[in-house]
Design a protein that fits this description.
Helix content: 25-40%
Radius of gyration: 24 Å
Number of domains: 2
CATH superfamily of the largest domain: Cytochrome c-like domain
Strand order of the largest sheet: 8-7-9
Order of helices and strands: HEEHHHHHHHEEHHHHEEEEHHE
Largest sheet: 3 strands, mixed
């Protein structure tokens, strides 16, 4: 069973912190000694989760280059202040018009609407990459399921399987009722003897598992290692205040930050919230050197990677006995299981193995990681598909938009506490940053 409890081997006495040296007073102050102030987001514009109203009244999202600008504001997110519920259970009468199987196949493979092949295999050499989060539908027509049943299954499968992880395609407004009839007609054609498989990669059941990228700390293999080395110059460079990081943390980041990353994310009393190293840099940098270190900026990411590299090989040591961390852990756990967005998905649907969920299976061509194995200790990581360094927060934001949910600001407390929950599964496992993944 997925662990919904605090892991063993915690409650460690932790020495030192990133906010030592010139910020020592801040790190030692108790929450009761500090004024309560709301968190002010400090991200690059693309990472702030901003929704802007256009002159014509349309609402458009400001996101990273290449990401959709569609506003999904009618669907709930992970925001703690939000009152929206998940997509309501929906139903509609079965259309009287017959479906078009050819159009149904087009819709089934449409990457902008689904694709349904992300979870299901059907016939056709052009069906690649298909996933296996859902059952193989290559012989669905042989079941002779009544059209009414198949229509209801696609429109909102929760009528039949209350805990289904399949999006409520009709209830959420992704497919219209006539389009679902086309899908019903297409699935009815999936019958008869299966042709011999010509490509074992096409079938997720026979597809090989990704082999990985070798030694992630080899600078000839992982470009993020080389990028992180530039942070040494930033560490020694004086900011507008006339101070540099090295003035308080002598010896460079690899020498002065040893062991620091093993304790993050963690509750920081001075800011009355859980913070990752990336979050802390956004306030610590300006306060000490006068240099802005906005979340998701190149400077922030490269400093974070360099600081974490100082703890490579050391086990994650989160203090989950601390009451504030414990409470944040529970809120992060609730977010992990919370269904959000137009597609009504939770993190748990893809990253746990219980009840037929997706961990260890293919979503399209991507193998879904299991949270129990730990997901965070190699972040920030080099994304070969993006040719860039991504931290855990950008990875969270990236998940939001395909699910039809507006992303929160990268430095939001909701993401910080979700990251704390995820990091708990890395407890006791060695840090290895930067990672390299597709």
């Amino acid at each position: 069973m997925l662990r919904g409890r605090v892991l063993t081997g915690i409650g460690l006495v932790l020495g030192g912190a990133l906010v030592s040296g010139c910020a020592q007073r801040e790190s030692q102050a108790s929450g009761a000694d500090l004024p309560s102030a709301p968190w002010v987001s400090r991200t690059i514009p693309e990472a702030a989760g901003t929704i802007a109203v256009q002159p014509d009244g349309a609402r458009r999202a400001l996101r990273y280059s290449g990401w959709t600008a569609e506003d999904f504001g009618r669907f709930r997110t992970y925001a703690y202040t939000e009152t929206k519920s998940m997509v309501p259970l929906g139903t509609t009468p079965l259309p009287t018009v017959a479906g078009n199987a050819q159009n149904g196949r087009r819709l089934f493979l449409d990457r902008n609407r689904g694709p349904c092949t992300g979870c299901h295999l059907v016939r056709g050499e052009d069906v690649w990459p298909a996933g296996n989060v859902g059952p193989d539908l290559s012989s669905y027509g042989d079941r002779d399921a009544p059209p009414e049943y198949t229509f209801k299954l696609i429109y909102d499968s929760r009528h039949i399987f209350p805990e289904s992880v399949m999006p409520p395609w009709g209830a959420a407004g992704i497919f219209t009722a006539p389009e679902i009839m086309d899908l019903v007609a297409f699935l009815a054609t999936q019958k008869g003897p299966l042709p011999a498989e010509k490509d074992l990669e096409r079938d997720p059941g026979t597809r090989g598992k990704p082999a990985g990228f070798g030694d992630n700390l080899d600078p000839t293999n992982n470009p993020a290692v080389v990028r992180a080395e530039s942070a040494d110059d930033l560490w020694a460079e004086k900011g507008p205040s006339g101070k540099a990081c090295v003035d308080c943390h002598a010896g460079g980041p690899l020498a002065s930050m040893k062991g620091v990353a093993t304790r993050y994310p963690r509750y920081v009393p001075a800011h009355r919230r859980v913070m990752s190293i990336e979050d802390l840099l956004t306030v610590h940098g300006p306060a000490t050197t006068g240099r802005p270190l906005l979340e998701e900026s190149a400077d922030n990411l490269e400093l974070t990677v360099r600081i974490k590299m100082a703890s490579n090989g050391m086990p994650v040591r989160l203090d989950l006995d601390l009451p504030e961390n414990r409470a944040a852990f529970e809120r992060g756990r609730a977010s992990f299981f919370k269904r959000v967005g137009q597609r009504n998905h939770a993190c748990a649907d893809c990253h746990t193995v219980e009840s037929g969920r997706g961990a260890g299976k293919f979503l399209g061509g991507r193998l879904l990681a299991d949270v129990e194995q730990g997901l965070t200790r190699h972040f920030p990581t080099w994304r070969t598909s993006q040719a860039d360094v991504w931290d855990m927060r950008k990875r969270m934001q990236w998940c939001m938009t395909p699910l039809g949910a507006n992303m929160l600001a990268a430095d939001s407390v909701e993401y910080a506490e979700l990251e704390l929950y995820l990091a708990s599964f890395d407890q006791g496992k060695p840090i290895s940053v930067p990672g390299i993944r597709h």
